[in-house]
Amino acid sequence: MESSPRKIIHIDMDAFFASVEQRDDPSLRGKSVAVGSPAARGVIAAASYEARKFGVRSAMPSSTALRKCPGLVFVPHRFEVYRAVSRQIHEIFADYADLIEPLSLDEAYLDVTGDKAGVATATQTARIIRERIRAETGLTASAGISYNKFLAKMASDQNKPDGQFLVAPGQGEAFVQTLPIGRFHGVGEVTAAKMKGLGIHTGEDLNRQSLAFLQEHFGKLGPWFYGIARGVDERPVNPDRERKSSGSETTFAADLADTGAIEAEITALADKVFAWCQKASAFGRTATVKIKYADFEQATRRRSLSGAIVEQETLRCLSLDLVRSVFPLRAGVRLLGVTVSNFDAAATAATARQAALPV
């Protein structure tokens, strides 16, 4: 790695939420554990590796998970505990890197090019970090080491759990070609299906496509796909990455068919999201409403304003207008969500100045 312009490590905790629960309750160790609710409308937040062997995954309906794994043990989430452990882990990161980009509670990129701890190699740095995480939290982590973020992210999945993998300079393009397209970070189910329809099943298939072909079929994402198929990713590790959206959603115990009840739920969700916007002094220009029907089909409605949504009533009205656009309902509704995005820096700064004025 010494010849590389960057030394990037991607650290990913192994089955984080479920592993914390197994750590804190020894009776759960070695068992198929799901963090979530076994209720009919429950959704899996995380699954232990024992449960994953049966095909149980996060975001899966609890009913489906139980069919796949009848012995599944459910435990309620404890996000305050997960956040506390995440802070512990990030304190360890800070001993080895100044450039740290958190992706979630359980994963982050570290740029260790500067060798803050004097370890000399990124591979050894990753090993020491993983050893400290195990010693100080009782949990395991996996790591990917490479010269850019995309390759480090892909590498961290190679030897999971409790392992690490290096993609050294000169190896990136060959490494990417061995991967199935569904493994690519940033390629979701819909895009993967589209790619497969075009005969693109692996990184090697993607590598064979011209830039013009990828732009024709994937628009602005074409150059990105063209680059990563060749192991190219110029994005720096960004410790100040801005949050791009804030949202809230809820899954109902019984399908909602009454439009009045749906409007009441949307209003409550809009108020919850706006409360976050006020607390964070972050105001967006775009409101999005998500509707998931009883048959799991999903509808999304979105509207952007010329200026930021700085009034609670504005977000309420926007959200109600958007959800009313699906009336009359084609089926009962099992989930509703409201999100604000496209944050307006000028509105945030103005709000901050207003809050600073003496009363």
Instruction: Tell me the overall shape.
Output: globular
Helix percent band: 25-40%
Structural class: alpha+beta
Task: Please state the CA-atom Rg, rounded to the nearest Å.
Answer: 23 Å
H and E order: EHEEHHEHEEHEHEHHHHHEHEEHEH
Q: Give the terminus-to-terminus CA distance.
A: 56 Å
CATH topology of the largest domain: Alpha-Beta Plaits
The tally of domains stands at 3
Q: Assembly state here?
A: single chain
Strand content: 15-25%
Mean pLDDT: 91
Catalytic activity: DNA(n) + a 2'-deoxyribonucleoside 5'-triphosphate = DNA(n+1) + diphosphate
Subunit structure: Monomer.
EC number: 2.7.7.7
Main location: cytoplasm
State the gist of this model.
InterPro entries: DNA/RNA_pol_sf, DNA_pol_Y-fam_lit_finger_sf, DNA_pol_Y-fam_little_finger, DNA_polymerase-Y, DNApol_IV, IMS_HHH_1, Rev_trsase/Diguanyl_cyclase, UmuC. The chain has 359 residues and is of the alpha+beta class.
